[in-house]
Amino acid sequence: EAQVTQNPRYLITVTGKKLTVTCSQNMNHEYMSWYRQDPGLGLRQIYYSMNVEVTDKGDVPEGYKVSRKEKRNFPLILESPSPNQTSLYFCASSPTQGGEQFFGPGTRLTVL
Amino acid sequence: KQEVTQIPAALSVPEGENLVLNCSFTDSAIYNLQWFRQDPGKGLTSLLLIQSSQREQTSGRLNASLDKSSGRSTLYIAASQPGDSATYLCAVSGTSYGKLTFGQGTILTVHP
Asked: How far apart are CA A26 and CA A4, in angstroms?
């Protein structure tokens, strides 16, 4: 089944404890992105990647890192999480620029 | 900076009604526009993708139109059903690789 998977789905952590949210797609898509969704602010892009080893900042990249060492994986790294990073995070992939985007199920992160 | 607005913010209708959701965007230089559905606590499901060169797309009871010059799109849902209850999100893909700018969404409730 073609899909985007994220792990973990739920995570509660404490301020400053490094964490990684994994994202994997099995559709051989070139483009992958991370978004966060917050009440009243909607969905905002954090980082995106056009292909392996090619990444760039979205609208809200502060406090996040990404890497794209393999085409299928695009992990999101929070090196020192803070409470304002409590949010619902979505990974997405697309076969081409401007193509249909497919979203993962989301990761609900709480930083205490 | 692209801004996407969706009207109305919430809509409650009886089962069987035909309804229209509206989306407007400020920058007409887009690659495509995508409509999504989001169920509470869940991920985003792609409904329709309209390329910038297209005027409309149809899938079952859904029809989406695009008027790029005026910066508007509408999602038409025919013969609404309680199972259509969800948040509907409009998103535009601009000239930057892989970036979607989302509207705030329309919360739709279809009551029996």
From this structure: 7
